[in-house]
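Teaching soon. Invent one.


***
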Amino acid sequence: MSFIFILLLSLIILTSVSIIKRKKEYKRKLTFAICILFVLFCYELPLIFYDATTHIALLYQPPEEIIEGTNIYLLGVNSVEFSLTKSKLDVSKILERQHIKPLTIIEGANKDRYASKNRQILSWLHLKEDDTEQMKKNVSYYLNQTDQKTNQKIDAFLNRERIGGDSGGLALVLSGKVKNGDLQNEHPIAITGSIDKNGDVKPIGALKEKIQIASISGISYMIIPSENKKEAIKIRKAINSNIQIFDVATIDEAIDVVEKINEK
């Protein structure tokens, strides 16, 4: 907020000076400076709308079997934003009155607000595709040969209003392959991981909460991205979970893991 105020004040001062100064040499330089400040001010202005969220509570969300009978469970985390709360304790009390036990309460940081604002602006300018939209394309690419009913169920999930990210990509691809008969799976497996167009599995966020959800739900096996492996080892130890975690770097590796689990 201070930064935006400084930019606005600078704009007013430079504009006033530009009006007072009559020499063309000064006017040209001042006009250039004013244009730069104006663009920067417009770019930073959306931060005002990101200032209200002070805490975010991450809540349990049951693992979802997108295609019934595949035993492939997608892991998602429910989040609730709180405005103008002073501490995590205040958030805990609010949730306690509603008989809700959070997995984690996170303080809203300026860094997160700034990153969120930048992503939104890039999306408006069509310079960066939305994560969910990119996931839709990548999943569709890998499942273009599945039967129509399978595609309909996956499309129904992808067309939901609030998916919130791209970490369901790997689970959707494996669900489609199991349903299509390209892969056999008889054991419940919790899966999280985004995918790219090359078939690589990319890292995800909220890993601690997802491991907690899988453990609470009684799922014995979990597949995560390789880049989250070190974090997963620490989390599993910290929460004393018995879940078996497998890390994969590609879709093919994930298929191999599912096959090995079923061989056991």
The beta strands are 53-59, 72-74, 78-83, 104-107, 189-191, 194-195, 201-202, 221-225, 244-248. The first helix runs from residue 2 to 20. The chain has a mean pLDDT of 86. The radius of gyration is 24 Å.
